[in-house]
Amino acid sequence: MASWVLSECGIKPLPRFYSKPRTSFSSNSTLCFKYNAPTTLSSSRDKFFNRTKNWALNVTTPLTTLQSEEHTKSFDPGAPPPFNLADIRAAIPKHCWVKNPWKSMSYVVRDVAIVFGLAAVAAYFNNWLLWPLYWFAQGTMFWALFVLGHDCGHGSFSNDPRLNSVAGHLLHSSILVPYHGWRISHRTHHQNHGHVDNDESWHPLPENIFKNLKKTTQIFRFKLPFPMLAYPFYLWGRSPGKNGSHFHPDSDLFRPKEKTDVQTSTACWTAMAALLVCLNFVMGPIQMLKLYGIPYWIFVMWLDFVTYLHHHGHEDKLPWYRGKEWSYLRGGLTTLDRDYGWINNIHHDIGTHVIHHLFPQIPHYNLVEATEAAKPVLGKYYREPKNSGPMPLHLLGSLIRSMKQDHFVSDTGDIVYYEADPKLNGQRT
């Protein structure tokens, strides 16, 4: 009987959203007893019971009006958060901000050793049964090199800009990424995350632009696996919908004072490309395709997969902003953390993407601790990632669903959400 209350209308169950009755006392109780006074009672007693038949209102209550309103109030992800950036920063332990160059370099040594070790083993055995395993393993290791170079670009590798630049050029050039060009482009992405017009990576298309795209362009952008196959060009050019190049110093991506940096990165990229051409003559194009070409393609497809899912594919629609509604904090809070199972360590925990986007200065090896510390402040604005098995196969469902639903946003409005084009999904309107 603990889950039932006696009311004026008889015995009623407690509301479903309270699994246990409250035992606190309140003057706004709904627990009451009906008393039907006998007709033989005196008029004075009638008046007494008429006055006091709801005496149980002062006894107990299963809930209060305020608690009910708070419980049933829906969460609006586009609403300004009740905290600011300083509140999140204060919750993160101070040691999480410390950059240890020796620790960062130890990860570089580890990853480079694994890359060369995998290549040596694959070349020695040269077994077609082992090649697919090598391609996947080496592709993920190329991604590991990319993440470390990405840390150099953010300055989270060390406090020494020269060390960051040298390590960044070596790491990124080895996988044919122009270091400074991509660093600056990625900086633009972080500074404008969540902004419909100014974001640099996988930003949404306004409806009028989307509907004026050629049908083939729509298919290649929103149908698997075409976007992943096309994504290598983002490493060299820019994301879909953006003009310019990571190689050209006069691109609108760069400031005049960054011209020399872009030229330096282009020279390093060219040197690596020349080295690969020479190795083709030494080892043969087929061997180079197996050792470098296919792993590289897997790496860029994986980069596409990861980058997209850090900003798309949540079960609930997440907002994008324009105009006065956008802020650095609100834009960063629409990013998503992801769990990659065994690959988390290879990814250098880049799946902790929310805190990384808000505070890119935090080294990757402190992101997990910083995220846990910030969760109580973030509250519902933090979307807990779904736990992965050894391999993150569950993310394929998120990718497919997003590709079917996230096509364009409204041309108007400062807070907008992705909409789907039924024709692109083969549905009739």
TrEMBL record:
Belongs to the fatty acid desaturase type 1 family. Residues 1-120 form the Fatty acid desaturase N-terminal domain. One of its GO terms (biological process) is unsaturated fatty acid biosynthetic process. Pfam families: DUF3474, FA_desaturase. Keywords: Fatty acid biosynthesis, Fatty acid metabolism, Lipid biosynthesis, Lipid metabolism, Membrane, Oxidoreductase, Transmembrane, Transmembrane helix. The chain crosses the membrane at residues 107-125. Residues 127-382 form the Fatty acid desaturase domain. It comes from the Eukaryota. GO terms for cellular component: membrane. GO terms for molecular function: omega-3 fatty acid desaturase activity; oxidoreductase activity, acting on paired donors, with oxidation of a pair of donors resulting in the reduction of molecular oxygen to two molecules of water. This is Uncharacterized protein.
